[in-house]
Amino acid sequence: MAKKLCGTNYPLSICFIVVNEFCERFSYYGMKAVLTLYFLSYLKWDKDLSTAVYHAFSGLCYFTPILGALIADSWLGKFKTIIYLSIVYVIGHVIKSVGAIPTVGNKDVHIALSMLGLILIAFGTGGIKPCVAAFGGDQFDEDSMKERQKFFSIFYMSINAGSLLSTVITPVLRGDVKCFGEDCYALAFGVPAALMMVALAVFIFGSSLYKKNPPQGNILLQVCNCIGFAIKNRWNSSKSAPKRTHWLDWAEDKYSKRLIEEIRMVLRVLVLYIPLPMFWALFDQQGSRWTLQATRMNLAFGESFTIKPDQMQMLNALMILLFVPIFDLIIYPLVSLCRINIRPLRKMATGMIFAALAFGAATLVEVNVVKTVVEPAPAGKCLLQVYNLAGRDISVKVPDNDVFPDPIKDLQDLPNYETLLLEASSKVLGIAVTLSGKESVCEQTFEEQKAYSLIIYNTNSGIKCKMVEDYIKKNEDGNPNIRFFNTRPEPVNLTVGREQFYVPSDYSMTPNKSVDRGEYPSVNCSARPETCDSLNLGLLDFGASYTFILLQESGTIVAKRMEDVEANNVHIAWQIPQYVLLTAGEVMFSITGLEFSYSQAPTNMKSVLQAGWLLTVAFGNVIVLIVAEGAGLEQWKEFLLFAGLLLGVCVIFSIMAYFYTNNDPEQLDKIFLEDSRWDEDEDDNMKKKNEEIQLNKAGKSTRL
Asked: Transmembrane segments in this chain: where (predicted)?
C-alpha cells in the first residue's frame, strides 16, 4: 500500500514529483529568460538571428514531446523515460553553461557548445513534458478523484512558481554578477543546471515510493497506423469497390468501428487547431522581441531600484496566478449575467483578439522607443557629427553635401548626426573649416554605413581636425556607453565603476566602453595631483552614448559631456499594458483550449489531442522564425504585421467554430455499448440457428 502524507489521503510520492517539477521549470524558464541577450551580447549575433534561433529552440521543445510519449508508452514506461531524458537534460544544461565561459575556446567553440546544449535541453524538457504530470496522476487510486484534481492544481502552481522565481533571479545573476569582466552568463546558465540536477536527484530519491505502471502501448502510434491503413486501402481499391461514407471507413478491414469513430472525432478537433499556431507566434515573443524592446527603454523605478530587461517576462507568470481566479470567479460570471453565451470557442477567439491588441500596444511603444535610436546610414552614405573645440564658432562645408548650413558653436551640448552622400563604398572628402574668416581644409576618408565624429580644435599652427569612428548602437543590456577625449598635454587615468580608462595626451580618444547605469558624481581621476582629484560625470542613463571632453580650467581637469546617442526616454512601465493584454488572452485561449480539447476527446484519445495542442505551439515558433529571418521589416511594422495576421486568423477560426459541432464522447460509449449488446444477441441467435440445423440433421427439433 502506498505511503500517505500525514493526515491526508495524498500519496507521499507526489511531494517528490511536485518538487521535481518546480526545479525543472525553474531550470527551463531561468535559462530561457536570458537566452536572447546571451545571443546578442555574448555570441554577438544580430537581433534577427538571435530571435530566429530562440524560436527554433522553443519550437523543438514542443516537437519532442511526441517522441517522449512514444518512448514512455511503447517502450520504457513513464518512470524510466523521465530518468533517462532528465540525464540528457542535465548534460545539455552543463554543456550550455560551459559554452558561456569566455576562457573555454574561441567563439566557434562557444557557438558549437551552445547549440549542442540547446538541442539536448530541447529533447530533455520536451521528452519528459508529457510524462511527469501523467506519472503524478498515476500515483492516485481510482477512487481518489478529488485528491487527483487537487494534485493537478498544486502541480500547475509549482510550474508557475518555478517560472516566476527563475525569471526574477537569473537576470540578476547575469547582470549584477561579473565574470571575466563581463555579464556572468556562465552563472546565469549554471544555476538552472544545478536546479535540474536537484530535480533529477529528488525524483530518483522517491523511487521506492512510486506506483510504476508498465507501458500500455501508444495510442498515438495506433492512430497513425489506422489513418495510414485507411489511406493505403483507399488508394489500392478498385473503382468498382463500394463507396464508403467517410475515407476513414476504408480502415474497417483491419480496425474496429469504435476506433475509427474516435479518430474521426479527434480529426475534427485537429482541423480546428490549424489556425491556432498564430496565437503562439505572438505569445512566445515575450522572451525575444519584447525583451529586445525592453533593452531600449528606461528601466529605473525611482533612484534606488532598476529592473533588468529580461526580468519583465516574470509579469506573465505573476499575472497568470492573479488572472485565473479573477476570470473564473468574477469576469465569466458577470458576462453570464449579461446573457452572453461564453462557449469555449468564443473564449478562444476573444483570447486571440486580446493578443492582437497586445501587439498593437507593443507597436505604439516601439514607435516611441525608436525615436532615441540613431539609424545607421544606408549603402553609399555615412553619418557625421562635428565637435567644435576651437574656442569660437566655426563654419563647416562638405563637398557635394548640403549639411551643417549654420555655424557650429563652441562646445555645443548636443552634436547631431548628418547623412553624407558618398556614392561609393569609401571616399576622400576635403572638409573646409572656416574660423574668424580663415579657411582650412581637412582631408578625411569616409566609408559607407559608418558613423564618425569630426573633432576640430585650434593650435598655434592653425586649425586641426581629428576624425574618430563612433559606435551608435545601443547596448543590448540597456547600459550606457562612454568614451573620453583628452585635450591636455598629459595622459589621464580614470576609473568609472568597474571599468578602467587610460586617456592618452594631445587630443586622443579612448574606445567606447559599457558601464553600469547610475550617478557618477565623483569618478577617480589620476593625473598630476594638483590638477585631478575627481570628476563629476553626472547621470549616465540607459542606452545613451556619451563623449566626455577633458579640459583644463583654472588648474583643474573638468569633463564636458556630449550625448552622442540619446538616453532611453520611454519608461519600461509602458510595457505593462501589453503584458496585461497578452496574459488575459492566454487565460482565455490557452486554459480554455486545454479544457475544450479534454472535453472533446474520447477517453483513450486525450493524449493524442494533447500532442496536437503542443504541436500548435511548435508551429507558432516556426512562424516567428520565418518572419524574423525573411521579412526584414522594421520592428514596429513587424509587430503590426503579427497583430493583423492574428486578427485575420481569428476571423477564420470564428467561421470554423461557427460550423463546428461538439463531440460527445459519452454518447459514443452508449452507442457502442448498445452495438456490443446487439452483436451479442445476434451471436446468440446464430448459435441457436446452428444448433437447430445440427439437430434437424439428426432428426430432432429444438422446438420440442
From this structure: 52-71, 83-105, 111-132, 153-173, 185-206, 265-283, 314-335, 347-365, 608-627, 639-660
605 secondary structure, DSSP code: G
Site of grid cell 507501458: 215
- Secondary structure class of 145 (helix, strand, coil): helix
Residue 294 parent element (H or E): helix 289-294
Residue 612 near residue 392, CB atoms below 8 Å: no
**Exposed / middle / buried, residue 477 (Cβ in 10 Å: 0-12, 13-18, 19+):** buried
pTM assigned to the model: 0.82
Say which DSSP state 663 is in. -
Q: Which residue has the higher pLDDT, 225 or 485?
A: 485
Reported as a single tens digit per residue, the pLDDT across 24-48 is 999 999 999 999 999 988 898 988 8
Q: Give the number of residues written for the chain.
A: 704
β-pairing, 426-435 vs 395-397, is antiparallel
Please tell me the distance from the alpha carbon of residue 701 to that of residue 688, in angstroms, as a whole number: 12
Residue in 25, 689, 634 with CA at minimum distance from that of residue 366: 634
Closest CA to 365 of 568, 583, 573, 574: 574
Cell numbers at 258, concatenated: 469504435
CA-to-CA distance for 640 and 644, rounded, in angstroms? 6
In 3D space, the residue among 25, 199, 18, 16 whose CA is nearest the CA of residue 125 turns out to be: 25
Residues 329-340 have a mean pLDDT of 84
Q: State the residue for C-alpha cell 517522449.
A: 68
CA distances to 223, 602, 606, 664 from 671, in Å: 21, 13, 19, 11
- Residue 4 has a pLDDT of 63
Which long-range contacts (C-beta less than 8 Å, at least 24 apart) are formed by 626-633?
627/281, 628/48, 628/51, 628/52, 628/55, 628/288, 629/48, 629/49, 629/52, 632/48
Task: Give the whole-angstrom CA distance, residue 619 versus residue 530.
Answer: 67
Give 172's contacts (C-beta < 8 A, 6+ positions apart): 308, 311
Smallest CA-to-CA distance from 375 within 439, 451, 438, 308 is with: 451
What is the mean pLDDT of the segment spanning 261-283? 88
Under 8 Å CB-to-CB from 282, ≥6 apart: which residues? Answer: 355, 356, 358, 359, 582, 620, 642, 643, 646
pLDDT digits (tens, 9 = 90+) for 525-543: 887 766 777 888 999 999 9
- Per residue in 89-127, pLDDT (tens digit) is 999 999 999 999 988 888 899 999 999 999 999 999 988
Amino acid at 148: R
β-pair partners for 396: 433
> Which residues, at least 6 apart from 646, have a Cβ–Cβ distance to it below 8 Å?
278, 279, 281, 282, 352, 355, 356, 359
d(C-alpha 513, C-alpha 471), whole Å:
10
Compute the half-sphere exposure of residue 679: CA atoms within 13 Å on the CB side of its CA: 7
